[in-house]
Amino acid sequence: RYRAFYSGSRSIEEIRARLLSKNPDLPQDGIRAFKEVPAKGAPGKTLYMGFSAEWEDALKKDDFAAYIGAWKIVFHLLLRRRPAGDRRRGTFANKEVDIYLIQEPYTRKGKPTCLPPGYQVLYLCANDTPRAIALVKNDLPATIMPMFCSKDMCTFSVFDLTFVSAYLDIQEDVPPPLLQELADFCNLQDRKLIVSCDANAHNTAWSSSDTNRRGDLLIDFINSSSLHICNRGSKPTFIVSNRREVIDLTLVSNNALNQVHSWLVRDDLPSLSDHSYIQYSISSVGARHENRDRLNLKKADWTGFRRDLLKLLTEANLPDSSEDLPGIEHRCNSLVEILNTAIRANAPKLFCRKKYSPWWSQELTRMKKNTRRLQRLANGSNTPEDWENYHSALRMYKSAIRRAKKTTWKAYCAGLEGQHPTARLVRTLRHDTLAQCNSLLHLDGNYTTSAEGSLNLLFSTCFPQVDEPEYVVDDHRPCDHKLFQQCATPQLLQLAANSFKPYKSSGPDNIAPCILQEALKLQNFADSFSKLLVDCYTTGYIPTIWRMSRVVFIPKPAKGDYTNVKSFRPISLTSFCVKLMERLILWRLRECDLRSDPVSKYQYAFQPGRTTEHALHAITSKIESAILSKQLACGLFVDFEGAFDNVLFRSFRNSLSRRNVRHSIVRWIYFMIRKRFVTSTLMGVTLTRAVMKGGPQGGVLTPLLWNLVMDELLTADIPSSITRAGYADDVAAVVSGPDPATLRNLMQQFADKAADWATQHGLKISVTKTVAVVFTKRRKWEMKNLTVYGRNIPFKKEVKYLGVTLTHDLRWTKHLDNVIGRAKRCFAQLRRAIGPTWGLSPRTVRWIYTGIIRPSITYASLIWTSVLEQKAARQRLYQLQGSICRAITDNIPLDVGVNRRSQGIHCFTDGSLFNGRAGAGIAIFHEGKMLLQESLHLGENTSVFQAEICAIEQCAQQLFQANINNFDINFYTDSQAAIKALTTENISAATVSQCHRSVQSLSVLNRIRIIWTPGHSNILGNELADSLAKEGSNPDGNHRLMRLPTPRSQVTRHINRWLHQQHQLHWNSCTEYRQSRSAMPNLNRKVSDYLISLNRTDLREMCMVLTGHGFFQRHISLQTGCPPTCPFCGIGEETAEHHVTFCPYFNKARHKYLGHPQRMDELTTADNIRDLRAFVRDSGRMRVADASTADLPTTGGDWAHPQG
């Protein structure tokens, strides 16, 4: 049964006819029954309808309300005091409410809180606490209007209605200038205006008890602006113990007056505030938008998916090949529909369930009911006793809520473990709620007032049109069929599909990577899909459904103004089928076509083994050389406007053709980038547009194509003395020398070349963002400004390039300021989850520090490490680390074979590492006889894993060179890591890749098995291989020498060893931390890991003992001047070492856990640290702040006592 409120004179038959006309595909007798009753408390009717099963699946409640023509309710909330916050049955529990207009909401740290799920939170007040906000249901297309928003006004539009939530401050004039401007704007544009406000004004016109000056001014404004007061009756909207008034107004313009009805004050619903609820209904002017159904692919039944997919493929009986375009379209659409049908049948829908407050309890429910009961009683009797009882209960109720929230938050933070939950918490704490795409600012200074206007502005900026589109006659004649058959084999398709993360967002065809990965395991689908892709390649064509891209505009981080259209970045969600095809073409280009003519050495982006630090090093090393030789260095840092979105299509094609890429590949790529369509949805409004230039951001081939185009600039005919570096669309050039005029002429040549190159490819240099800097320590120099497009580029003192601030004297102090400030802001956001004795565990906090904060500090530190030669710079880093180390510990300073016979061939391999030198051994048996045994010397800087892999690879090569055919060959190894590395689908290590190729070559004419055997288990062949490997590790033996590339793990191990040595040297050379260095003279990672694994309370107590900065009398005396004598034994000063190793009062606990007295440095080893922790916990000393006033037991208990 469905129910909807509506007003008007429509009859049941008219409504029935409208419903049937809206749903012509549904049965005419699907509407079973009608019931119509008068609405309570308002003119209109309440309609009850029943539907058949077919209608139940097709018709939703919200659709039905839109067809009838009514929004349900608009609530006007005034929350001067804190709301109850019960998200289940509290203030916002009414699911029939579409819009809440709220004044003086409860806020925390300047942001509204205690808000319900399922609503858009609208306000625009970035630097102040808002006093007027609005909540709008997610299925209503609400567009905020920034030009009419402030901390006291929130203005937004829904369809053709303009809503205002306003708070009229009693200290300011009435009406506010912004409200006057809005009223004039709506009158001029003939827009419908609805204002709900806390007026703080009295006038008998709206049934106030009297009239004051604010009321007179406000009524003049209402009359002059053609507004009407919707308030009905004299029920007070503001109720306190000594006054009841009507000060909350609903104002409506002439053209919207007939749409607002059923206005009433809800005094029957206690608000736990001194304002009452106001509600009214609005006739509908449009239908709600629906969200796209989403599937929970993580819970899909993949076995059932493959079974249904095989059945659907068999029933479809698709042709194996068709090189005509309609046939390709038909096969593509059929495969997409088959995949979607199979996954919809085996994956549940993803429901956004309502999130309940974890801190809510039955006790809070009881207190809330009691408080509401007392409020109703006080409103009715209006006696001081009842009001005092109500306010007392309200204070207790709010205190209980705060206590429950605090307790639950502490428990949640303390129980958080693992990288993914912690990363999710970090993103939540750093989330910017204002970074949302809503109303945007035009270049003419006006704001968009609808979702369609915002989308048009985003599209025109991110996907610009061209005056003269490229006219190309498409050639789809098949060619290079054999080439593309080799590129798109089922095995390569599976490998390409597995290169994508399985649950990435899908394109318009709704095919996620995990669907392709599972479908390609089915041989029938893999064959059909492979043939379809080969036909697409050979004809240079892509089906229409795969050329559609769903565009999502994501906010750029740390942008202050999100009404600027350039604060959003478009991400194209293309079909993963096309991305898979791009991946195959990318592999082909890198392995074949571009191998002889690769990307230039000046390119640092999207290149294996190159990062931003390499680009920075190329530029800064040139600058440093010039400064050290007392010369000048002129740098130009060029910025291109919307580079990826504005480059011409033909630029991509020409850059490929110049490198002699096969014509069939160029044709397919050119068709892919030229025939794209983008579609985007914002608040129910969908726009689709053809792309006229630019490459898809998020595409697999786009980075390579851009690099090829950029190569023309970086390798242009410019003087070789100019050092240049390109990273994506960031280009930098530096030239050095003694003569300023010569440097200026050389750099002007590069600027002119860059401008010509940009014009040739449809780009434009941003003159305002392009920066020129003269790097020198000279105080006086003269150089004429550079020019671009005839406009001067003045020289500046600093520039930010690839995230690093470069100053004219290259001192790095400004960059250090930025780095430390950014780290402090980041950690300050995370402090909400950390307390002295509660919060995230020390291990989790250390992960946040080492995984998020410290990388942001040490980024490009290879470039600016010279600044740490200054003591002041090191001290600033120490202070930053010290503030973080109060919550965590262990931070490196930031400145620093078979016993049976068989007819097959049995190969036993092993690797060994001894005294830093590696060796490998192989032993080959056949029919119980030894065929070969050999020891290999692999030199230094080789890991055991490499030795194991090398042994298998050499064994396979020996058998391959001996022309072994038609044998069962078994490789035996005791390294499970080697087996897993050889059987994985994605192989990146060169040593493993070479071994994999050798084994594959051997497997062409033989049957290969790799078997794990336990090491040192008296297996004859395995023991022999082990002894041969140990012999090979000896450099003095007569063994074959092999050189292997140094593995990353070995480099990391050496770096970590060096870091530990530097850390130890730094620790030994410190003149501070006397007690800590005495307690732990040698750094021990095992001890640190144990300490960091403790809970916050235990870690706090251990830090007191290890540092001496605790409740010890010696430490207290330094602060207060009291005697440092131990209050328990009276013998000597009470220090940490005295407490642990001597004080007789704690002998019982000391003998129990520590045995005989020891020195502190003996107790902080990996073997004894747990005993020390047990002693500290059992003694209980670190839990008593003032021992002189402690009530200590005389016998037994947790305290130990003197012995004898």
UniProtKB/TrEMBL annotation:
Q: Which domain of life is it from?
A: Eukaryota
Q: Give a GO biological-process term.
A: DNA metabolic process
Membrane-spanning residues: none
Report the residue ranges that make up the RNase H type-1 domain in this protein: 901-1034
Query: Which InterPro entries does this one have?
Result: DNA/RNA_pol_sf, Endo/exonu/phosph_ase_sf, Endo/exonuclease/phosphatase, RdDP_mobile_element, RNaseH-like_sf, RNaseH_domain, RNaseH_sf, RT_dom
SUPFAM superfamilies tied to this protein:
DNA/RNA polymerases, DNase I-like, Ribonuclease H-like
Reverse transcriptase domain residues: 535-806
Q: Name one GO molecular function term.
A: nucleic acid binding
Which is one Pfam family of this protein? Answer: RNase_H
The molecule here is called: Endo/exonuclease/phosphatase domain-containing protein
